[in-house]
């Protein structure tokens, strides 16, 4: 699956990458959501190119961001979970650009191993890395799966108000605007790249009152229910996290969803502030904007919350690219994923690849071609709550989910966008299932990969004193912002 970029003519520009965290792709105005207000992203979408079928390479923060950084799948970079983070040893797009004379700055969440590692950036401003330098040790425990009582926070921390995450996002916005103002007057030998990374709409589901008040919880419909019993793999994940069980009523669930909507609008306003700064500094004419999220959020669909599943709510992500030479009001249906960003970033600033094998193609290349119904995108999950490795392939209108040791799932997203009809159960799609399994084996051996991930995790568990020591230590619900203490919650 390793591919080398085939170049199209693209005028080199500066590049600002705006990333947010845990954004369900369906909850955006430009994607047709009837309630959520995201006017700035809607405008960006109308001015640029929307990648309609974009996916994370792992539906959890640390592995997803490692794939974005390295342009490699999780089974290649070995950042399996939220305790095994990118450590700078595998060359990132930031390394490549900095080493060839580009200024590369990050502002906000990175979720790398720690601030001391060389992630390739010229400068890191207020970076967030994994908690306490060790990350989510609780998530390493997979046999048997523990109960994550920390999940109570999802139901208890909801509604209008303020949080350290909201404060952090405001600071990220302010520092991004300051950086753009300073660099609008500065001469650069080569185009620069600015990576601005927000938290919202990641939980806790507390939204600034002015954004929460845009939504009346009583008018919010409850999420769809599962078509039947949950898949056994998913049921075990849910038995571990138990998010939904901590809500006391449907009214509480509606408040949580209203809060998520409010955080989406809050985040959209921050994006709008940055886009306005690009205009006022005169940088907009020579800057490409790439907006995306690291993964989605189930947000109550099928009774599931958080990320970690391969369903559309969790595994698909919003992705927009706008700027010179990019078509306005354009929608690309060809599936893409986070690993496609590495060659895209280099091409945007006019930098050649150095021959290193990558797992993706440039988004410029993909957007310039007709719809490719044979292109495959790939995601995998080996982290918290997973009894075994889960793998997803999207090709054309079909999506295949392989659960190691369990039956697969197969959906046709054109006829069944809500993923309520598992075609793998029908016994009529055996040829499709066999072909998808061959496609998966061309990327990785799922059983062998599952074994490798668990072996790495077992070694790390031993380094931290064993399962009981980790359980006694407790786990956290959220990564603290820079300067904030870790809040560990036991059983």
Task: Give a written overview of the molecule.
The chain is an alpha/beta fold. The protein has 15 helices and 17 strands. It has helices at 39-47, 61-70, 74-77, 93-99, 152-156, 164-183, 209-212, 232-241, 250-280, 312-315, 341-348, 363-368, 430-443, 446-463, 467-473, and strands at 14-20, 49-51, 54-55, 104-109, 123-128, 158-160, 193-197, 205-207, 287-293, 316-317, 319-322, 330-332, 336-337, 376-381, 390-395, 398-403, 409-412. The strands form four sheets. An eight-stranded mixed β-sheet has the order 5-4-7-1-9-11-2-12, with helices on both faces. It has a four-stranded antiparallel β-sheet with strand order 14-15-16-17, with helices on one face. It has a three-stranded mixed β-sheet with strand order 10-3-13. The radius of gyration is 21 Å and the shape is globular. The relative contact order is 0.20.
